[in-house]
Amino acid sequence: MKTRDPSVRVISRNSHQPRPGGEYVVYWMIAARRSRFNFALERAADWARHLDVPLVVLEALRVDYPWASARLHRFVLDGMADNATAFDRREVSYLPYVEPEPGAGSGLLENLAENAAVIVTDDFPTFFLPGMVGAAARRLPIPVESVDSNGLIPLAATDSEFSTAYAFRRWIQKNLHTHLDAMPLEDPLAEPLPRKAVIPAGILDRWPAASRPLLDGDAEALAALPIDHHVQPAATAGGETAAKRALQVFLDDVLTDYGEKRNRPDDGRTSGLSPFLHFGHLSSHEVFLELMRRQRWSPDDVVPPANGRRAGWWGVSETAEAFLDQVVTWRELGFQFCHHRKDHDRWESLPEWARRTLDEHAHDPREHVYSLAEFENAATHDPLWNAAQVQLVREGTIHNYLRMLWGKKILEWTEDPRRALEIMIELNNRYALDGRDPNSYSGIFWVLGRHDRPWGPERPIFGKVRYMTSANTARKVPVKAYIGRYAPDGGER
Fold first, then answer.
1. How far apart are alpha carbons 187 and 283 in whole angstroms?
2. Burial class of 280 by CB neighbour count within 10 A (0 to 12, 13 to 18, 19+)
3. Domains held by the chain: number
4. End of a domain among 97, 127, 149?
5. Is 70 a member of any domain?
6. Are residues 297 and 385 in the same domain?
7. Closest C-alpha to 118, from 92, 99, 140
């Protein structure tokens, strides 16, 4: 089969051969929820052309996934609306299915596969997705391929996880050039497809496409779904259209002083791209290409040697390098770790030194100990921490710099470090738009020592794990306006 997809990104999940006489190829869209810069969609379209059959795109949304809420549903539905518009213009049959009740979607993929030749899906290393893909591949009698569209570096390009950002940065500096020639197509459907598929009527009768009111943001339609409605939709809309707009705003208006002001909570000079990257509405390849186009960059601009340094290697502006370190080094470090470590969301994945020192101080006296409910309701003694928690609950995000402090204080104010980890995961995954993501898990586990080193002096509770305080944070960055904006009582406690 003629294909541009680098083989390192394609994983055969079973040993079956394409079904003779299969009527279509299915792209089961579960992570890269976009029509552009998508290796998996590109692979599925190549299969369709190779077999001379139509392409069906299935994007299904359960109601019983962990932390299912109006917030997360609304963001995904916004993307479905954009996909419906994009695929309607092409020779693609798109089925956006939303479960009306738990279990209603059971059997949809199997029934769609009965007439399919091949199934292509997304390779994503966290949440319930790897297990779901593995189970489908075992029970379906046709090929199931998962394709990695996650980052510039293919997940399978490395042999093991990296313990530090410095080590991963050195690897990137030595190896990135070998992967820059294999970029996804901006428009994977530009080359004509054979024809539009007719999805069997029996399937559409049992599993009808999501209604236009639901896709278009009707509050009553969303309210009818059995999900957590306590966590309401955030002001940030999802989907490719919103993602492209956010990218342009960042590059046009924010990037100029991103390096200087991104750590200022009162200023908000952050990219705001993380939710779109998490839900696959935006490709990191597109972010990279658009940034480097504006920087008039080529690989020849790289400044040797490859010594792991944070700045001065890419050969672009300081602000661009600061952003690249976040979106390439730190983001993809998390993906690589989760790919290689199936226990990435468990205590045991911490480095040995961190587990040892935290265990040694697990029973140290705590001046304050809060319950999950008190944390969730921003009912601590600390106005700055409360403000960060309110921002999380209200907007689905915490300012990047304060997210670190948020986690460090949960560690300090919880009865033991394992319980602190549970609380961080619960709050982050329930409220954060970019929760449940490799990058999100990196941030949580960094609080406990992952991708960091031992620090001295050794302290109560923290041991040799890096220590942070609200007072020191307030001395480093302006926080008064931030507290006034987000704290439940304006900071008076």
1. 12
2. buried
3. 3
4. 149
5. yes
6. no
7. 140
| Residue 118 bridge partners (DSSP) | 25
446, part of any domain: yes
Query: Whole-angstrom Cα distance, residue 317 to residue 298?
Result: 13
- Do 298 and 405 belong to one domain? no
Structure tokens at 448: 């406990």
Q: Which of 309, 340, 371 is the last residue of a domain?
A: 340
Tell me the three state secondary structure of residue 485. helix
Mean pLDDT of the chain: 95
Specify if 217 maps to a domain: no
pLDDT band at 318 (very low <50, low <70, confident <90, very high): very high
Total residues found in the chain within this entry:
493
State whether 358 and 464 are in the same domain: yes
Buried b (16+ CB within 10 A) or exposed e, 63-102: bebebbbbbbbbbbbbbbbbbbebbeebbbbbbbbbbeee
Give the count of beta carbons closer than 10 Å to the beta carbon of residue 203. 19
Query: Taking 90 as the threshold, does the pLDDT of residue 493 lie above it?
Result: no
Give the angle 443-449-451 at the CA atoms, nearest 5°: 65
Report residue 5's pLDDT band, with 50, 70 and 90 as the boundaries: low
What H or E segment, with its residue span, contains residue 247?
helix 240-249
CA distance 272 to 236: 9
**417-465 residue pLDDT tens:** 999 999 999 999 999 999 999 999 999 999 999 999 999 999 999 999 9
1 and 143, same domain (yes or no):
yes
CA distance 169 to 178: 15
* Burial class, 249, CB count within 10 angstroms (exposed 0-12 / middle 13-18 / buried 19+): middle
DSSP for 198-211?
---HHHHHHSPPPP
d(CA 388, CA 383): 9
Separation of CA 367 from chain center? 35
Domain contains 205:
no
Residue pair 229/221 in contact (Cβ under 8 Å)? The answer is no
Kindly indicate the confidence band of residue 4, based on its pLDDT and cuts at 50, 70 and 90: low
Tokens of 201: 């009527």
pTM here is: 0.95
β-pair type (144-147, 10-12): antiparallel
d(CA 299, CA 152): 14
Write out the residue range of the structural domain in which residue 281 sits. Answer: 240-340
